[in-house]
Please model this.
Amino acid sequence: MQDAAPDLIHAVIGFRQWRLRGSELWSLRSDDRWQRGVHTAHCLSEPPHDGPAPQNGCTCGIYAWYAPPPRTASAATSDLVAGAIAAWGQVELHAHGMRVEHAMVVALALPFSWGAKRHGVEAAARDLEVPAVPARRLIAAGREHGELVPRAMRPPDLTPNKRAAPGEPDPARLYAVADGLRQRR
Ligand SMILES: [Zn+2]
Model:
């Protein structure tokens, strides 16, 4: 925890992958459907701690990376879709990604192919009322809704050759990000 660090005052932009089921977006690691509007994390520990998720020392919170996943990670599959989220509330920063309290999808990446998957992504984007954009434009589409986490605010990478999932291990830095999307609730 860096006391002197500046707080971010706008929503931050992160990137995730979901599993596409028809035109529905589902989390990869939990049975959790993402729908239009705000998605809020809850602690799933037994028993859950007080206060918001994420919390230091726990694994709760919505996970997101600082940069889009490699295009090859989803292009070759029939059901993985990448997208950008805007995040705010309690935000814990790790070397490659973050865990956040509140998030909403702000853009989805279109696959290269023209088949069923593309139709699914387009339908999902319509349901979420967000744009479906070519993968190379995902960062730009996200930045219309907030800012990328500045590199200087990210903890150092202790495993430089691994694209580790956000979460453990530490060090992590905890920030409060102001509700930059109040008008969209
Ligand atoms: Zn927790």
